[in-house]
Design brief:
heterodimer; A: alpha+beta; Ubiquitin-like (UB roll); DNA polymerase, domain 1; 2 domains; five-stranded mixed sheet; 5 helices; about 10% strand; globular; B: alpha+beta; Aldehyde Oxidoreductase, domain 4; 4 domains; seven-stranded mixed sheet; 20 helices; 30 strands
Chain lengths: ~150, ~775
């Protein structure tokens, strides 16, 4: 079957029951999305499938035939990071960084739907992604800074 | 006659005994005295890189997905190991079929009960807790390994167990460990003064029993190791807080020299105290890698991580405190029961009761019991987070009984010196923390805000929730000066790029950034010229575990000394090039300048002339000063809204002031404060491992029923630092700060809830049920 991931077409032959997360990580070597819980509870595996926020750890890859998928590796344009990526760096929105790929994908989707989110909208949009280090205040300030147009990215 | 070679001058070395505080507990250590100690960076020191809010040096890797965590290590031909775990809390394995597991296609190896070397302590045939590893299967896919595990068809026979303190200490309790269910020499008693006299002298007393839950670390990257052998040497990639401790553990368990074990850790997805050494998954990966000749990965599933990867043990604390009418404390007593699990150490709540207040009469006793549950591990501020809930809740209730402002009560009993060890603090700005946090919080005017929380009569008629605002506070002490041994090297390469090398690890705290800043500052180099090389035992000088908030105050001084020595050598080399004495030179922005002239050379111009003559500076962490106590302090204020009908608490705001000496990077340090506060909020509000008393198994081993804070749960947080460089503690002036902010958050929130509802909740987390119970009182 065919998948388009970060603009590149891939032909894969998944086994029955393969999860999208494992295909991305093990076959396509895109290790940005992470295993955190395997049950769609933590959000470290978050990617966009046809533009929809998706927990890839509980998504069967068989259902993704022909899909367009964006992972954290697809957010930058070559060496130019997206505005959100730059803001996450400047605002220290990553401590250990393990949840960061998922947070960035969720934040990208949030701003796409709502370019000027208030605090409540940010909290609602980002509440599917856990961070055990507690970077939440910095994630909020990074998203606000992008909404204010302080960063220009890819 | 041949000339005799000159005897080399022996470098002066001296080894002395010193005291280092690890996770709040003193340890005696023999350490090597450094050959020189740089002059301390006092508050007056003019620093241009240390103290700046520079972003993390590894932030780009983290936001692009390029950072490689241990879970991302994929070696050619790598096999996956799956661990089988006991479903019963005590008993024995009655049967299993290893041959059937081996016959499953794709299975490469089986480690059955009795198969592992004794030193690994893996897979005993007797079960002592639910979730205990009992066997492992390794295969060329996770699915094949899981199929192999099912084919093992392990059968168990349960036996009577004791999963709680009460059960383990009851007469004729089932034995958790063969030597008995109590740690040796229980209880641990510590006392000063005369608590009987203190009780007689008290005008007002508070006696309460406080309970704190088992908290699970819940790092998002589970425990994971990859092992690969090359001849008689093994490389271990491990998600760990201590690469050298993993090396020691693997060498000991496998009976091989440490030099045959290499441990690598570049990025890790959180530790919080649970990843301090080699564990079952490490040994399983190493054993299978040896027997199969293939690289092997072994990781905890989320269920395993929440079941058997360490925890903060529960406590029951029976507290009595008393004071004169003017608030002068006359006694503090506390008696604690702590069920540790099947293993653990004495990280109890007692010590904080002796350290935070200048009370003359204090007595604590702690009884640690082994129970049939997974063993505890240090969890961010072990003992102190638990102790703070008891001590600070009691202080807050005492203030209410005295009719006194809890802030005034704390100021009144401020401990000018360390009251436990009866010696000065190296620095202590706790009073400034009180003042500044209270000011920013608006503590003095809190009653004006109280009214705004309540609905009007009309709103209430319309069905608005009955809510009430409350305000509370708590304070914190945490002994954290860091200490030896820690080594670092700084080398200036032939192109003038600079490496700072230390065998430490960055947990997400920012060690890479902080060490780069310290080295760049001491050298007079641009920060962008410096690369921190960490996380590999093979080539890097020793540093200890990243625990006890120790990395910055332990490794930082070693990195600074190494950079100072490299700078001295660089100036020695540059002086003849510039035709001056080294003492005429200074450095800034990777440039050596002749003082009071416009003559200068860049580092690169100097190293070009030096070619491959490499400048290498070596640094050692010296001993801590004798006869002072080193600690980080803080005060936190909380504002909450309580729904009186449902008992649901919303934390609206936390204001936190902490004193950790010099702050190397205020941006990253602020993140540490916010993160600690949020974990403390989880501890106070939601987090509680639930055990089934009938079976002794964890009922919420996941991230749904075990609830850690989400972004929607967090209040407005204003966290900042007060105080100044602690030039007595060490020559960088920095103390530790990762653990302290977690300590006072739960009791500050509990105090705010009590303020709102007029009754104290004495058990965390503050679930709606518990809050409603306190309202009804």
């Amino acid at each position: 079957m065919e998948l388009t991931v970060n603009g590149r077409k891939h032909h894969i032959s998944p086994a029955a029951g393969d999860r999208l997360l494992n295909v991305l990580r093990d076959e396509l070597h895109l290790t940005g999305a992470k295993y955190g819980c395997g049950h769609g509870e933590c959000g470290t595996c978050t990617v966009l499938v046809n533009g929809a926020l998706t927990y890839s750890c509980i998504t069967l890859v068989e259902g993704c035939e022909g899909a367009t998928i964006t992972t954290v590796e697809g957010l930058a344009d070559g060496a130019t990071m997206s505005a959100l990526q730059q803001a996450f760096v400047a605002h220290d929105a990553a401590q250990c960084g393990y949840c960061t790929p998922g947070q960035l994908v969720a934040a990208t989707k949030l701003l796409e739907q709502n370019p000027k989110p208030d605090d409540a909208a940010i909290k609602a949009g980002m509440s599917g992604n856990l961070c055990r280090c507690g970077t939440y205040p910095k994630i909020i300030s990074a998203i606000q800074a992008v909404a204010r147009g302080e960063f220009r990215g890819a | 006659m041949a000339r005799k070679p000159k005897a080399p001058a022996a470098p002066a070395k001296a080894f002395i005994e010193t005291t280092v505080v690890v996770e709040g507990r003193s340890e005696k250590r023999v350490v090597e005295l450094p050959s020189f100690e740089p002059a301390a960076w006092t508050e007056a020191a003019e620093l241009s890189i240390v103290g700046t809010r520079t972003p993390r040096v590894d932030a780009n890797e983290k936001v692009t997905g390029r950072a490689r965590y241990t879970v991302d290590i994929a070696r050619p031909g790598m096999l996956i190991a799956v661990v089988l775990r006991s479903p019963v809390a005590k008993g024995a394995i009655t049967s299993f079929d290893a041959a059937a597991a081996r016959a499953v296609p794709g299975v490469f190896g089986v480690l059955a009960p009795g198969d592992a070397p004794a030193a690994t302590r893996l897979f005993p045939t007797k079960i002592s807790y639910a979730g205990q590893p009992v066997a492992a299967v390794c295969a060329d896919s996770f699915g094949a390994a899981a199929a192999g595990a099912r084919a093992m068809a392990m059968k168990f026979e349960g036996a009577p167990f004791a999963a709680t303190f009460e059960a383990a200490t009851a007469p004729n309790a089932p034995l958790v460990r063969s030597k008995g269910n109590l740690m040796e020499n229980m209880p641990i008693v510590a006392s000063r003064g005369d608590v009987e006299a203190g009780l007689k002298a008290a005008d007002v007393t508070v006696t309460r029993e406080y309970r704190t839950p088992v908290q699970l670390h819940s790092a998002l990257e589970p425990h994971v190791a990859v092992a690969e052998w090359e001849g008689d040497r093994v490389t271990i990639w491990e998600s760990t807080q201590g690469i050298f401790r993993v090396r020691e553990g693997v060498a000991e368990a496998l009976g091989i020299p440490q030099s045959k074990v290499r441990v690598i850790k570049q990025y890790m997805g959180g530790g919080f105290g649970a990843k301090n050494g080699a564990a079952a998954h490490t040994f399983i990966a190493a054993l299978f890698a040896r027997s199969t000749g293939r690289p092997v990965q072994c990781f905890n599933t989320r269920k395993a991580e929440q079941t058997d990867a360490g925890n903060r043990p529960a406590t029951t604390q029976r507290v009595t405190i008393g004071a004169k009418k003017d608030g002068t404390l006359t006694l503090i007593t506390m008696s604690a029961d702590i069920p540790l699990g099947v293993s653990g150490w004495e990280g109890g709540p007692g010590q904080m009761y002796h350290e935070l207040y200048a009370c003359p009469n204090v007595r604590t006793d702690e009884t640690f019991a082994y129970v049939n549950a997974s063993g505890m591990q240090a969890f961010r501020a072990p003992g102190y987070a638990e102790g703070a809930f008891g001590l600070e809740s009691a202080i807050n209730e005492l203030a209410t009984k005295l009719g006194m402002d809890p802030l005034a009560l704390r100021r009144k009993n401020f401990a000018k010196d360390d009251p436990r060890l009866k010696r000065p603090w190296s620095g202590n700005a706790l009073r400034e923390c009180y003042d500044e946090a209270a000011r920013r919080f608006g503590w003095a005017t809190r009653d004006d805000r109280r009214a705004t929380g309540a609905p009007t009569a009309r709103q209430r008629e319309e069905g608005a929730a009955r809510t009430r605002r409350g305000f509370g506070m708590a304070a914190q002490v945490w002994p954290t000066g860091g200490g030896p041994p820690s080594y670092a090297h700084v080398r200036i390469n032939s192109d003038a790029s600079i490496d700072v090398l230390a065998g430490t690890q960055d947990l997400g705290t920012g060690a890479r950034t902080v060490l780069s800043q310290i080295a760049a500052e001491a050298l007079g180099a641009k920060l962008s010229d410096v690369t921190a090389v960490i996380g590999d035992t093979e080539s890097l000088p020793y540093t200890g575990n990243s625990w006890g908030s120790m990395t910055t105050p332990s490794v930082g001084p070693a990195a600074r000394m190494a950079a100072e020595e490299a700078r001295r050598l660089l100036l020695e080399a540059a002086a003849p090039m510039l035709g001056v004495e080294p003492s005429d030179l200074e450095t800034k922005d990777s440039r050596v300048m002749v003082r009071d002239t416009d003559r200068s050379m860049t580092f690169a111009e100097i190293t070009e002339q030096l070619g491959n003559v490499m400048i290498i500076g070596r640094g050692t962490r010296g001993p801590n000063p004798a006869d002072v106590s080193i600690a980080t302090f803080g005060a936190q204020f909380a504002e909450v809204e309580v729904d009186l009908d449902t008992g649901i608490v919303r934390v609206l705001r936390i204001v936190a002031a902490h004193d950790a000496g010099r702050i190397i990077n205020p941006l990253l340090a602020e993140s540490q404060l916010e993160g600690g506060i949020i974990q403390g909020l989880g501890y106070g509000m939601f987090e509680e491992r639930v055990m089934d008393p009938a079976r002794g198994v964890t009922l919420n081993p996941d991230l749904h029923d075990y609830r850690i804070p989400t972004i929607a749960d967090i209040p407005t947080i204003e966290a900042f630092f007060v105080g100044e460089s602690d030039a007595i503690a060490n020559h960088t002036g920095a103390r530790g700060l990762a653990e302290p902010p977690l300590i006072p958050t739960a009791p500050a929130i509990a105090a705010a809830v009590a303020d709102a509802i007029g009754g104290f909740v004495t058990q965390i987390p503050l679930t709606p049920w518990r809050v409603l119970g306190a309202i009804d009182q």
